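Incident log, support desk, overnight shift.

02:14 A customer reports that sequence design results differ from what the structure should imply. Their input is reproduced verbatim below. On-call engineer (initials T.W.) acknowledged and began investigating.
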């Protein structure tokens, strides 16, 4: 009986290994098919991801530029985001200077088919930048550059940072807090308005990220609700009124393609259980989309 049990156990383990190997091969094949398709149509891809749930998101506190890590749920969201984008090509990654953005990017990459090693390029000083770029040509060929930029940080909420949103509304009134949170050009005390956040985030996007896409590179940006809302306002040519109504879920990838100077919103690669949520507004519906050899098929939910 013991011998039979051992044999059956070994046989099961071998079957499981074979199945895992087959899935990995299929995933790799799908990636190459997608990559070839994008090359044929001369498109580059842009993936935008809001970080997973942070510890202050969980507590319903204004976070802004305070450097707070992810919760367990946020870790799970980051891993799920990685599963959604695992077959999309990546050449360069941009992150903010805040740990929740960095954790999300690194965790997502653990699920990506790519075997390249992400290397964070430091730009705090010329010396730091130089030191982080010194490594062999062989390792350079098998790595993905990760560029850290404070300009992609969350909107600075000033004196609201660290305070509970519900209690702040009770103190200052719901209408006033709503203006601070959702107006385009109204800033909280000693903080930034969305317009100010847009100024730095979009300027950085135009100067550093868009040229990568123009060069045919496939780019991922992992940042924050308001820095990404700012970038999406630029990409989708939203008005200041439309962007106010734009909500982004934590840990949900948003996919764009870039071709001949134009950005096309492709929605969110769907997860295993539900449609990918792009936004909840009357202007921007929910989308479920897939990349199939460079072709897009859109369903409006």
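02:41 Re-run completed on a clean worker. Output:
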């Amino acid at each position: 009986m013991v011998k039979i049990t051992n044999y059956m156990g070994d046989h099961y383990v071998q079957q499981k290994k074979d199945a895992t190997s087959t899935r990995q091969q299929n995933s790799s094949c799908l990636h190459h098919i997608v990559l070839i398709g994008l090359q044929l149509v001369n498109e580059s891809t842009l993936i935008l991801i809001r970080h997973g749930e942070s510890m202050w998101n969980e507590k319903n506190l204004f976070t802004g530029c305070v450097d707070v890590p992810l919760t367990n749920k946020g870790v799970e969201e980051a891993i799920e985001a990685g599963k959604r984008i695992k077959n999309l090509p990546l050449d360069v990654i941009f992150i903010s200077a805040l740990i929740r953005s960095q954790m999300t990017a690194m965790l997502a990459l653990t699920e990506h088919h790519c075997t390249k090693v992400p290397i964070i390029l430091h730009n705090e000083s010329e010396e730091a930048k130089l030191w982080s770029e010194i490594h062999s040509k062989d390792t350079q060929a098998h790595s993905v550059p990760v560029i850290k930029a404070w300009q992609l940080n969350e909107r600075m909420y000033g004196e609201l940072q660290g305070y509970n949103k519900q209690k702040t509304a009770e103190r200052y009134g719901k209408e006033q807090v709503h203006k601070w949170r959702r107006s385009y050009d109204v800033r909280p005390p000693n903080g930034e308005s969305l317009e100010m956040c847009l100024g730095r985030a979009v300027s950085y996007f135009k100067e550093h990220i868009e040229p990568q896409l123009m060069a045919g590179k496939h780019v991922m940006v992992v940042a924050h609700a308001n820095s990404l809302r700012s970038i999406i306002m630029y990409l989708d040519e939203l008005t200041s009124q439309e962007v106010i109504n734009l909500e982004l879920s934590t840990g949900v990838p948003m996919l764009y393609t870039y071709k001949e100077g134009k950005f096309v919103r492709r929605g969110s690669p769907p997860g295993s259980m539900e449609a990918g949520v792009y936004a909840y507004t009357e202007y921007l519906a929910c989308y479920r989309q897939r990349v199939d050899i460079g072709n897009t098929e859109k369903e409006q939910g």
